[in-house]
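User: Please fill in residues for this 156-position structure.
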C-alpha cells in the first residue's frame, strides 16, 4: 500500500505508475491524480501558447528526438509492430538466429525479415521476407488459391 502525495488516499501499488527514479519503484502520485495533473498542465500550456503553436512545438520536439535518437526510435517502432502481431523483440531475434537470417519460404538471406502470424489465432509463426509475406497476404492464406496458382504455373 502507498499513499498518494496529491489526494492523500492509501492505494494498492497497482494504482501507481512505475518509476525507476523513485526508491520504491512507483510514482508519488496515483494514476488518477497523475492524469489530472497532466490534463491541467496541457490545458495551461495550450491556453498560454494557443493550440496551433502547441502542436507545432510538439511536432518540432518529435522531429528533433527522431534525429537525435534514430536507433531508439527504430527499436521502439519495431517493438510496437512486433507486439501487434504477438512477437517480442527477443523472440524475433531468437527466431532470426534459428533461421540464420533466411526467409522460411524462399530461403533468401535478408537483413530484415517480417514476423508472420496466424490471422485466425494471432499466434506467431515464422519469419518471412517481404515478398513471401506479401504473397501470403495477397493469397489470403488460402491453400486452394495457392494450389490453383501452382497448377496454373505448372500448366504454362
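Assistant: Residues filled in for all 156 positions:
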Amino acid at each position: 500500500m502507498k499513499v498518494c502525495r496529491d489526494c492523500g488516499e492509501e492505494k494498492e501499488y497497482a494504482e501507481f505508475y512505475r518509476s525507476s527514479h523513485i526508491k520504491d519503484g512507483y510514482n508519488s502520485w496515483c494514476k488518477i491524480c497523475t492524469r489530472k495533473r497532466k490534463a491541467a498542465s496541457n490545458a495551461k500550456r495550450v491556453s498560454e501558447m494557443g493550440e496551433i503553436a502547441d502542436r507545432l512545438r510538439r511536432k518540432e520536439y518529435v522531429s528533433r528526438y527522431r534525429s537525435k535518437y534514430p536507433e531508439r526510435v527504430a527499436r521502439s517502432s519495431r517493438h510496437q509492430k512486433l507486439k501487434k502481431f504477438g512477437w517480442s523483440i527477443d523472440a524475433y531475434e531468437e527466431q532470426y538466429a534459428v533461421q540464420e537470417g533466411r526467409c522460411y519460404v524462399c530461403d533468401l538471406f535478408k537483413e530484415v525479415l517480417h514476423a508472420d502470424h496466424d490471422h485466425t489465432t494471432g499466434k506467431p509463426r515464422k519469419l518471412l521476407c517481404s515478398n513471401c509475406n506479401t504473397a501470403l497476404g495477397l493469397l489470403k492464406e488460402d491453400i486452394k488459391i495457392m494450389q490453383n496458382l501452382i497448377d496454373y504455373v505448372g500448366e504454362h
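For context: The chain has a mean pLDDT of 92.
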